[in-house]
Predict the structure.
Amino acid sequence: MNPKITAATLRAMKERGEPIAALTAYDYPMAKLLDEAGVTLLLVGDSLGMVVLGYPDTTQVTMPEMEHHVRAAARARPTALLGADLPYRSYETVEAAVTHARRLVAAGAEFVKAEGGREILPQIQAIVAAGIPFCGHLGMLPQHVLEEGGYHIKGRKEEEHQKLLADARALAEAGAFAVVLELVTPPVAREISQQIPIPTIGIGSGPDCSGQILVTHDLIGAFPWFTPRFVKPRLNSAAEIQTAVAAWKKSLQPADS
Ligand code: KIV
């Protein structure tokens, strides 16, 4: 059996230049399958809202929904590091951030992730001080999609570039063990990855991050109604399911009665 992956493993992987392969999992079978396939990190992301729960974005995902899915994924007892997103508005104060991070850990998460930079630094410091491994999330922040009016690439403007760099440095100094960079321009993602000691995990941010994360449903074509432009699906599982169902339906015999 492979040794359990921890935050320290990810740091060592960055130092060795070994890519971190991260995917989302929201339930027991997917967590088990992806773990058996050798994924480094599993995230019960709040993308759960769109690809599993049918919400239009991540802002409607609740804490009880996250806990329910974290419990299911944790039952797979993965070798991969298993983390969970703090849902929208669950970390507006230091007290709320620590309370909700502890609830996700009680449900089985080995780390928590929250979106934002220096504006949530007190919350990050408190989570780290409580002994809970913390992963940052910079760039496009899906929990802000309504204010931002869509999913926009970050880092094109010099002001955004400098803010991203300063936020990434602040997260590393605050004790985050990794940071997700979402829809950050590839040159800025590369610069951040070179400048900070902790691993960067990119999504739509080019190849030069310490690792990559995808929503599993996008990778395997399980949510065919929308696929982000930067994802190249490796399987068309939606079509395979429909073909299998159609074949089974055709095989049904008329009853004698
Ligand atoms: O919610 C999510 O799934 C995420 C990742 C895709 C980074 O935050």
Summary: The pocket of 3-methyl-2-oxobutanoic acid is lined by residues 24, 43, 45-47, 85, 180, 182, 203, 213, 215 (CB under 6 Å).
